[in-house]
Model the fold of this input.
Amino acid sequence: MAMTDEKRPTLTVVHPDSVSGGPRNDQQEAGAAQVMDALAAAGRLTQCQRTVMDDVDSKDGHAPLSDQEVGDIIRVVKSFLEAQDELPRRDQVTGAQIARATGEAASTVSAVLNNVYPQGRRDGHRKRNEVLRKLDKFVATEKARRASPKRSGFAWIGVAKDIRTVADTCVYLETIGAAFAPAGVGKTITLTALLDEIPGSLLITIDDGTHSPTTFLRELGNRLKAYSGSRDRQASRRAICAALTNSKRLIMVDEAHLASVATLNCIRQIHDTTGCPVLLVGLPSLPKMLLQGRGDDSRGATLYSRVGIIRDLTERCRAGGDPGEPLYSIEDIKKVFARSQLRIAADANEWLVDLANMPDAGGLRACTNAVRLAIRIAETAIPPVAAITAALLTQASRLLHGIEGAKVISTRIKQRRAVGA
Done:
């Protein structure tokens, strides 16, 4: 249900001439409370989708549901699920995902939606009502999420092309490769795209659950459906190697800088046994781990000797003098945001180029967040805003990073332009 203008939260949209003449404008002079109020107003648009229970008199979250309310909720949820057939498979919500999101067993959700939940049991009606209210809220939230501004599209530009080049080299040389760069330049989204580009490739992300050899082997084995179920690390590795030998499948490891040296050595052993190429991707601390022990007899020396290619993805920024070639050009930015819900003005593209080329300020990820929030701000404006401008992005930056944080970004943008970056 769309919000009426009377109920729509609004934000003051800053116009270009209010920022170009100097540092003063409404949002910059506003106190922290007003800034948070503005951010909350933009966020409330995600709640425009109403639940069934918003439209009935039963506001008490513990009040029994009438037969009419039960029927209405079941009908809305089923209609939502049926409408998913028109969506790409990756965007569809499964029963298992609904169960996880609501904290209920999948069998319970199914029984409630089919109106066969055993109400004769103790507290049966109460449990059914509780699940229905959760489903009602879940559907409204999911509809709002789908209606919100989408993330930027993926394009093979800048760092993405460099990562693909390193991956292709790993496959060609049948070696271990490493690529590293600061956060926010698009490493993870590129690896995900490579899954479709390189048939048979695998992607494992190192986190608290996969940083040790045992947990890494379990995750990789599960992906290959080759996990032995044994706690014996050697048995697990043998099962994985049997599934990978002569397959030449590329194993990509994201956040590799979080892996222990023992885990990296385990990956090296899998490469040695199977001949599968490996691509390690992470933050700039990754090469320090790979260089650990170089020149001695440790496991690190053995690992380093297997690394056939290692690339600093930001090296181009320093090549040929200061500041060197930018990570992203204005043509790159236009490709990334080509499918934006609002037209992006020329000055906004320039602003985004400046921010994208500052990885330590969030890089491409910060650009995506600023554009999405700018679209949300534009939607609150009466009359609607026709295009995203640099002023609108600056306003979004203040809401995201605070007044002082936005000032730092603005100052750095001016410095980049002053040296002709």
